Each structure stands twice: as C-alpha cells, then as structure tokens.
C-alpha cells in the first residue's frame, strides 16, 4: 500500500515530463493562441552526400595548400622532415579531427565551435569562453579567406609572368586580383546558391585530376632520381636554424597539409 506522499501525477505533469524527454514544448508552455501552426520549418538542403564530401575535400584541399609551402620542410631537413612530418602530423590531426567530429555529432548546430564550448564548459565560464571562441573563429575565417585569396592572386600573376616576360608584377596588382576573386566568390555564393553543390563537385574532380597530372609530370621529366637513403634518412638543414628548431618548423609546416578540419561540422550538418 502506497503512503500518502506518493500520489498519481496529473496529466499536465506527465505532459511536461514527456516534453522534456522529447525536447518538444509542453502544451502548458505553448501560447494559447488559436490557429497557430507549430510545424517546424527547415532550410532546404542544397548539398547532396557527394557534394558534401567534395566540399570537405575542397575546403581542406591538402595537396594544393601543402604544395604552396613545400619549400619550408625541404629546407628544414629535406626528405626525413617532409615524410615523417606528414606521418606525425597525420596522426596528431586524426586524433584532433576524431574528437572534433564526436563533439560536432553530439552538439550539431550552425554555431559550431562556440556552441560546443558553451555546451561543454562550466556554467561560470561558458558565456565568456563561447564569446571568445566565436570571435576567434570569425577572425580565423577572415584571415584564412584572405590568405587563400592572396595566394591564388599571386599564382595567377606568376602565370602571367611566365607567359609574358615583359610584365612586372606590383603589389597593387595582387590586391586588385584579390578583390576581384573575393567579388566573384561573393556573387557566386549570394546569387547562385543552388549551383554551389555542382561547383564544388567540379572543383573536387578538377583537383584530383590536376594532382595526378602534376605527380606524373614531375616523375616523368625529372632525370636525376635520388636514392632511398637520401630521401628517408639524410637530414639536410639549409634553413639557418639549428637542427632542433628546423625539425620543429618543418613539422609545423607539414601540419598545413591537414588544415580545414572545420569541414567536419559542415559535413555532419549536411548529411544529418
């Protein structure tokens, strides 16, 4: 026989508990307004599974990003720094990416990093930590976008120099091309959002084709081949730093090949 302290829950209490479990607002909390449609609306997904994978690949674009700074690890140890740096960097970034993917899967939202920080930090510091993380993410995105755009602008002008020896590039030329590239990207994203999926898939296949073509061409035209011992064991430092610092700088440069793990958040949101 139950004591007096135990009593049957009222229907309103049962509804409130059920709403907490299902994450839906309880009928008590809903405003009592007639003819109100509470159906949730979602934005239409513009990325398919293939285009999402392609977007993640093009965001990282490892071989292009790494090739832009390949001279650093080669001058800071040559083959051993380059090869073993990529292996160590791959292990480190795989651990970070796995943890980040787990957090993104547990707390999927448009906010990304700052929302994860807010959900995982203690209540006393979560507001400041999320605010700081959000602004750091914005500054990082702005800096990374400007850096990539300037790199592409410099590459375009280098091609112009190769085709026209009389052309002398100026700093303001690079800046104008940079502004032009940013304008094109803005117009493409704002005026033709439905075409972004097809664009990233095209860039994905173009990147793979260019990588294979570049690799085959370099191996075919290079007449002098170094022995395996030189590639894997001979540490050659011509950077001017000591061997220890050179190895650290070369390793840090190899991490650039694994940049862009933020694409994990977008892929999870697009797939799920």
From TrEMBL:
Locations listed in the record: Membrane
* InterPro entries to which the protein is assigned, alphabetical: AA/rel_permease1
Q: Name one GO cellular component term.
A: membrane
The signal peptide annotation in the UniProt record is none
In Pfam terms, one family for this protein is: AA_permease_2
- What is a single molecular function from GO for this protein? transmembrane transporter activity
Q: How does it sit in the membrane?
A: Multi-pass membrane protein
Keywords associated with the record: Membrane, Transmembrane, Transmembrane helix, Transport
Q: Where are the transmembrane segments?
A: 47-70, 82-107, 128-152, 172-189, 196-221, 241-259
The entry's protein name is Amino acid transporter
User: Which species is the source of this protein?
Assistant: Gibberella subglutinans
- What are the top taxonomic ranks of the organism? Eukaryota, Fungi, Dikarya, Ascomycota, Pezizomycotina
